[in-house]
Amino acid sequence: MELSACLSASDVSVHAEATMDDALRALRKFYGYETFRLGQATLIQAVLKGRDALGIMPTGAGKSLCYQIPGIVLPGLALVISPLVSLMGDQVRALIDAGVRGAYLNSTLTPGQQRTVMHRAEEGTYKIMYVAPERLSDPLFREFAARIDIPLIAVDEAHCVSQWGQDFRPSYLMIREFIEALPKRPPVIALTATATDNVRDDITGLLGLYAPETVITGYDRPNLRFCVEKLSSKQKRSRIAGYIAEHPGDSGIIYCSTRKAVEELTAWLAGQGISVARYHAGMASEDRRVSQQRFIDDDALVMVATNAFGMGIDKSNVRYVIHYNMPKSIEAYYQEAGRAGRDGEPSECLLLWSDGDVSTCRYFIEEGAGNAELTDEEAERVRAGQRRMLEAMVGYCHTTGCLRRYILKYFGDESDVLRAGEGEGEVPRAVPHEPNAPVGRSCESGLFEHGASPSPSPTGCGNCSNCLGEFDSVDVTVTAQRCVQCVREVNGSFGKTMIADIVRGSKAARLLELGLDHLDSYATVQDSNSQVKEVIELLAAEGLLQVSDGTYPVVGLGPRCAETDAEGFTFTMKRMKTKKPEPRALAGEGGHAFGSAGFSAGDDALFERLRALRKRIADANGIPPYVVFSDKTLRDMCVRRPKDRLEFLQVNGVGETKLARYGETFMEEIAAFEQEV
Known about the structure:
With 677 residues, the protein is an alpha/beta fold. A hairpin with a 7-residue loop joins strand 15 (545-547) and strand 16.
């Protein structure tokens, strides 16, 4: 249904030329913040001056304010193009709750409702309207857009325009033509959380941005703790159930690579008494909508889903994201993991993986349904890029170096974390997808210098499982050398399983028939079959070996294979410690942080009480709890414990509209709590 809220003309500036002073006033009034975050002011100022802009900002960095603030202070109706049809209602509800007039226009509305929304928009009822990219080809909408004053067009999730991005959507390719067909071209701002150099170039070119003001704030999310564990399927289930039990009341997402895995894990978790919902593309649209709403409303604390769920999700209080399977790329992983901790509070990103996950990813790349709109040559270029991205993902799972540094280096983020870790070795970066680049080589110089895996560095981030020493380094130098020797002897004719069988001295009939038991590398390794295969994967990830394309890949020599013969060559891999370390406080002492300075264990009881109040208010008003107040705002309330309206306005994230709507109720709850303790 149509959503809107009424504002008087005096509530917003409607000058012919809005200024940054107008923007700051709107920020304070509607969002309760005194200053802009890193990068926001630069992008907003560019738009207010009529320039195009491109923002690459991590999830939770406040990308939406970069178009919402200009939409509020500029005259006319700002259009936001977003692929998130199922979330538009919640996005507009959040605007309305802040006191901003908003609407959406998509296929969930009846034709009559759509006409009503457009009619009211022409009357000036709204300031911001969300539309799906498919709407841009509708003649009725095009006529409507030609009649109204559009001061700004925002393209959310802008990486969807690029065939090199992990979420390419052909409908995004029509955005440029729509913009250029308008009677007067407005400034355009494109925003995304993750984009390599290739994707950034595509965004600029395919959207037709004119010399855009470009802001790349960096990819680091200090509040996120990254952890990687290699486990079997049965171990994964137990680990997840244990993790959820250790974090009662926390909201989390568990990503699976297949619909079948989603169904099986959801059923198993429900059988353990866990409040869980599920989401994948094979479900009926109404079932998906209900599942998503249960999760957003905190009625189901855990969402088990494929990557069909969550792009751009506004739910700010997701405290953890667990990957049940390894994703196909660092881009996909970081975007999905980044849905944790959007409010800046400490959160965890746990990746559980197995050798089978690597095979599944390779199968999806080679046999998965391609994009019918691409030529055969273009489709092969996409697959070649996906293979290289997968090798970088495998390297992330294997590396013994800082996990945060690995991710940031991949995206070319020269942050303090990277400078502090210089000398530890190289990490693969996203490189141009050249169709003739050597297959299996995911980086320009390999993972580590001289093939030596670094130990956890005291100059690392200090907030990932590797830097915290949650694994033991195992020397597998001999195994690595024998595997490379075997591949050289068989001239790259066999796959990973056969190589492992040869070096382990298997008596398999086919191996003996081919005379492979006479090779010098035969029966030279004592390690288990699974460990040898893992060593082969790690060798491939570092460019010492390479895995061919196709359904039945074979193992060949990599561009750095000669390094295994060099004097002093060493090769290590990691093994998780049998005994897990004691839980550590996440970034920010005591597990609380970022805008919640002074939060102590004694405030936990008040926080839970305010969270329960937030849930009751949200249910009564038909809105998600995080729309009322974020966890970060509730924690700041616990620290400040405001007693009057002026003090309540000082709470982080409280603006005038929310003060009027919720201030008295929350202050009464705080006062009641203090009387009881």
